[in-house]
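This entry is set out below.
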Amino acid sequence: MTPQDRALKKQLLVMKGEALRVKLRLEQERLLQPLRLAGSGFAMWREGWLGSTLDTLSKLLPADARLRRWMQGGARLWVVWRLLRRAWSR
């Protein structure tokens, strides 16, 4: 193998590494997109008065109370509803 062949092979390996890095970055972005949407949905829920009220009230109630579990479940349903509504509007 001549020095020119080695240099060419080295350049090809560097280009392949760059292509793989770009591919990995794009795949990470694609996988993280739903998590970003969910995170923004939780942020929207926290900003709303109903979500924060349910959260605060559920923290004030005793831990084993049935009402507390119901309110936490309602808060989760509220988050899911907001996420679905936001996804549907896109």
Summary: The chain has one domain: 3-89.
